């Protein structure tokens, strides 16, 4: 696939005409880019495998030197729930609110983090693995490091999974 930057297939791009990608940027395999609102990928940007960018159809800006580690989700819009109308993307009565996500110069979003609509991650910022963008309050100051909430108790998670499987198969 030729989109103007370094790409490793397979890759899913919706509305590829709305993608602007610097030739030195790299997008790894198994990523999905929803470009309806436009996605701009700057110089020396790296998007690692399994990222999903532009969820919800708003604009996404990845400035020079920024990076998204594996499994990052950049959500740039959402459907709006309301009485008497569906929220499905295929419902003709669905209402959508589109916004943006901006990842500033040299910022990094670590594995599994989710950035929500309207959030700007500041220059040189570091967003910890598993963090959620709603906690970022629109702008991360320069050099800010966001720590994730405490990791879940692995024994408790294993017990919940075992209970779930037992309920499904008994």
Provide key terms for this protein.
170 residues; mainly beta; seven-stranded parallel beta sheet; globular; five-stranded parallel beta sheet; 32% strand; 1 helix; 9% helix
Describe this structure in words.
It is globular, with a radius of gyration of 18 Å. By secondary structure, it is mainly beta. Helices cover 9% and strands 32% of the residues. It is built from one helix and 19 strands. A seven-stranded parallel β-sheet has the order 1-4-7-10-15-18-19, with no helix packed on it. The protein has a five-stranded parallel β-sheet with strand order 2-5-8-11-16, with no helix packed on it. Residues 137-152 have low confidence and may be disordered.
Task: Describe how the helices and strands are arranged.
Blueprint: E1 6-7, E2 11-14, E3 19-21, E4 26-27, E5 31-34, E6 39-41, E7 46-47, E8 52-55, E9 59-62, E10 67-68, E11 73-75, E12 77-79, E13 96-98, E14 100-103, E15 108-109, E16 114-115, E17 119-121, E18 126-127, E19 145-146, H1 154-169
Parallel strand pairs: 1-4, 2-5, 3-6, 4-7, 5-8, 6-9, 7-10, 8-11, 9-14, 10-15, 11-16, 14-17, 15-18, 18-19
Antiparallel strand pairs: 12-13
